[in-house]
Amino acid sequence: MRKLWRGSGVHLGLCFLSMFAMIPLLWMLSVSLMSPGEASSFPPPLLPQNPTFDNYRQLFEYSSMGRNFLNSLFVASAATLLSLTFNVSAGYAFAKLEFKGRQLLFRWLLSALVIPAQVSMIPLFLMLKGMGLVNSWIGVLIPFVASIFGIFLVRQYALSIPTEMIEAARIEGASELRIFRSVVLPLLKPILITLGLFTFLAAWNDFFWPLIVLTDSEKYTLPIALASLSREHVQDVELMMAGAVVTVTPVLVLFMALQRFYMSGTLAGSVKG
Amino acid sequence: MKPSVAGWLFVGPALAVIAVFFFLPVLAAFAISLTDFDIYALADLSNLRFVGFQNYADLLQRPLFWQALRNTLYFVLVGAPLSVMVSLAAALLLNGQMVRFKGFFRTVLFAPVVTTVVAVAVIWRYLLHTRYGLINYGLDWSGLPIVDWLGDPRFSMPSIILFAVWKNFGYNMIILLAGLQAISVDLYEAARIDGANARQRFFHVTLPSLVPSLFLVGVLTMAAYFQLFAEPYVMTQGGPIQSTLSIIYLMYEEGFKWWSLGSASAVAFILFLFMIVAAIGQLVVMRRYGSGV
């Protein structure tokens, strides 16, 4: 009997926390379907009286949201591809290839994780300005190309590859590149998905750097466009909520679909190495 | 090709990118913080002068800098512990033996973490709306006085903290849940045999075993919270009367609104210094009160 009580207490607590987590998102969805002005009344309506997609239509027809969506999609996909290209081979090498100075170099990199990215951003901006790359896609993508965290994530996973497999391929005369391609990469598949997912979400959600480096509204990604929209159209709650839905839905769907990889990556990334 | 050569070739491209686009800029940021880099220098580098630590000295003279520092510390020192406590509560609930639909609850509680800060900040700005917001409606309904959440300097930072807790608690929850699951059942059994009640088991078994995870979560959360920016940018624009102006917000305005890039770099370095001090401080505290970290 006491067990039953405790069990229901735990469930009550979980339901309460879940409501805390979900109500803002459900409310966003509901308001995005209301007609203009409907949400600005008292008491605040919980559900739309006549659900309508007008806000979405307006968003895509009269503002540049469609364009911003494609920008975000492009930036996040390109960032993912670049990150996989640069970080995976490095992570593997730090785990499995003996070379001089490896341990020291890796420790150096890890200790640099404490440096907040913002410290580098003013000189990076000036550098890109010198190269004429402000307001360019290359400029937005630069911070995502190689990341210490990404290398660390892949290395932790690659440590579990049996060295004998690599040795065996070496004895058979396979080149290091070949070993990497046909032996290592297939084994690394789960962490590739994790790293890809992390990078995609980070690039999609990123705000500070694109805010600095993108000056032309044609190039804005969704968060920048939404932030400027929310400063201009303070009163259009319904429109803003539709914008928030458009911004948040892709990442939520991606997360739901690949949740397993996300969770395992969160844990792997937080284990002290 | 020898594996040692291959190793360097494999790490080379990533290291080169990190060196050129991260390490070099960090060093350059320090150099810039020692100059009077401003809009004139931006137009013509010959206008640049070395000023030593003048930018730092000037900042320490400015009330706005102290305000930003106070606000950021408020956010970190209140927001981070609060976030970790909510995460811990959520993890303890999820770790209950008879919890059903564990996967469902975990997903739901984690969902805010993956959302876009700007988008959900827009949502919360309306939830906190004085006249039409759900939160004030709830207060009014329960007979409590309503609050001008984002318009009253006493409540603006607590509002942003509430939002940050909502957005972030799921992340630490996952790490702490893994920590809880790693605690050996034998320890609980032994404590039970010794006659420890649930409370005692929590304080003498669960909490000490969780010290490494709590330390990790604390450091990560504080580091992230020191970088407060998008939340006030969207929800309050640093106001009212600068009550939510954060250090990074100040750096952004100095650097990219007024183009005082020398001064902005100094702000960035002061923030970095604070982050290091906070991390070391936490390490010391944990060493003293916890088993080995």
Describe the structure in your own words.
The complex is a heterodimer of chains A (273) and B (293). Chain A has 273 residues and is an all-alpha fold. Chain A has a single domain, classed as Orthogonal Bundle (MetI-like fold), CATH 1.10.3720.10. Chain A has helices at 2-32, 54-62, 65-96, 102-111, 118-130, 137-145, 148-158, 163-171, 176-187, 189-205, 208-213, 222-232, 237-257, 259-270. In chain A, helix 8 (163-171) runs antiparallel to helix 9. The mean pLDDT of chain A is 89. Chain B starts with a helix and ends with a helix. Chain B has a single domain (58-289), classed as MetI-like (MetI-like fold, Orthogonal Bundle). Chain B has helices at residues 3-33, 39-43, 54-61, 63-94, 102-114, 117-127, 134-141, 153-181, 185-193, 198-209, 211-226, 230-235, 247-257, 261-289. In chain B, helix 13 (247-257) runs antiparallel to helix 14 (261-289). By secondary structure, chain B is mainly α. The interface between A and B is large, with 96 and 89 residues.
Could you describe the largest sheet of chain B, including whether it forms a barrel? none
Tell me the domain tally of chain A: 1
Shape of chain B: globular
Secondary structure tally: strands of chain B:
0
Number of DSSP helical runs of chain A:
14
Q: SS-based structural class of chain B?
A: mainly alpha
Number of DSSP helical runs of chain B? 14
SSE pattern of chain A, N- to C-terminal: HHHHHHHHHHHHHH
What tags apply to this protein structure?
heterodimer, A: mainly alpha, MetI-like fold, B: 293 residues, 14 helices
Please give the structural blueprint.
The complex is a heterodimer of chains A (about 270) and B (about 290).
Chain A: H1 2-32, H2 54-62, H3 65-96, H4 102-111, H5 118-130, H6 137-145, H7 148-158, H8 163-171, H9 176-187, H10 189-205, H11 208-213, H12 222-232, H13 237-257, H14 259-270
Helix pairs in contact in A: 1-13, 2-13, 3-6, 3-7, 3-10, 8-9, 10-14, 12-13
Chain B: H1 3-33, H2 39-43, H3 54-61, H4 63-94, H5 102-114, H6 117-127, H7 134-141, H8 153-181, H9 185-193, H10 198-209, H11 211-226, H12 230-235, H13 247-257, H14 261-289
Helix pairs in contact in B: 1-14, 4-8, 4-11, 5-8, 8-11, 11-14, 13-14
